[in-house]
Amino acid sequence: MVPSEELAGGKPAVLCQHPGLALAAWLTVWRPPARPAPGVSKGARVDRAAKLGKGVAIAAGATVEAGAVVGDRTVLCSGSYVGKDAVVGEDCFLHPNAAVLERCRVGARGILHAGAVVGSDGFGYLWDGERHRKVPQMGIVRVEEDVEIGANAAIDRATLGETIIGRGTKIDNLVQVGHNVVVGEHSLLCGQAGVAGSARIGKRVTLAGQVGVSDHVVLGDGVIATGQCGIVRGANVEAGTVISGMPAQRHRDFLRSAAWYARLPELAKRVERLEAREPGKGEGGTAWKSESPKS
Fold first, then answer.
1. Pair 166, 248 in one domain
2. Can you give the residue range of the structural domain that contains 49?
3. Confidence category of residue 255, pLDDT binned at 50, 70, 90
4. How many structural domains comprise the chain?
5. What count of Cα atoms within 13 Å lies in the side-chain half-sphere of residue 189?
6. Which of 132, 143, 164, 172 is the most exposed place for a label (fewest CB within 10 A)?
7. Checking DSSP bridges between strand 230-231 and strand 212-213, what pairing results, if any?
8. Residue 269 pLDDT more than 80?
9. Catalytic residue numbers?
């Protein structure tokens, strides 16, 4: 699949404007995602007070608590869990051991991979002079439509109010989203990224692998944080900015700093040679001796 005959290199090819999208469409047709037959397995635990939509498929070992709502055609695999008064929308797919905890919400067409947790307690503790006292986490998580959450990712419930994952956002494996965070629509959070409490992530933001976002940070729409970038507490990053490094700075400035960093051994040697020069030796300039004690 190529966008032009020239790129085909004389080989048989399918011409298409966007080869990547065409490949995705073809793979979906060639091998569509497997969906189990509708029905509730005898080994499933579904409370009588839960509400199940039409065509749901609930495997043995799955649990649906009282007051929970499971939308039409949603699949709950073995070990998945929908807590008390939680809501899972239509056409969702919860892989083994995925959990939507008490009162949390997952919108239509959501995908939770194995071990993903929506609604774990936020990391809230206060030192009372003797120990870390837990602050009860009374809020919820609201995941909007068409969100995919990777294996062993964790989205913490708010202390009060809601932690929000915007429509169309994709979250990779092993990502942590803290309490009271708001993630805008169609953002990408890549593997091992971490977002601390009360951060605000705009629309179409990309957090590359192992990016760390401190609490109360604001990232404008379209921000890109490159791998292992560290964004310090209270930072406010303008829309469309590409940032890198720790502490985070504009990508171009980071590249300049990195170039100087690579030269530090050379510059250190030059400084040592200059400090070792005695007065009257060398060409031009003022010479000096190092005042630092000898090792």
1. yes
2. 39-254
3. confident
4. 2
5. 34
6. 132
7. parallel
8. yes
9. 179
| Cα–Cα separations (whole angstroms), residue 38 to 56, 57, 168, 197 | 5, 4, 26, 39
| Three-state SS sequence of the chain | CECCHHHHCCCCCCECCCHHHHHHHHHHHHCCCCCCCCEECCCCEECCCCEECCCCEECCCCEECCCCEECCCCEECCCCEECCCCEECCCCEECCCCEECCCCEECCCCEECCCCEEEECCCCEEECCCCEEECCCCCEEEECCCCEECCCCEEECCCCCEEEECCCCEECCCCEECCCCEECCCCEECCCCEECCCCEECCCCEECCCCEECCCCEECCCCEECCCCEECCCCEECCCCEEECCCCEEHHHHHHHHHHHHCHHHHHHHHHHHHHCCCCCCCCCCCCCCCCCCC
10 and 79 belong to one structural domain: no
| Global pTM value | 0.87
130 and 45 share one domain: yes
Residue whose token pair is 């909007």 = 144
Compute how many other C-beta atoms are within 10 angstroms of the C-beta atom of residue 12. Answer: 5
Tell me how far apart the alpha carbons of residues 230 and 249 are, in angstroms, rounded to a whole number.
9
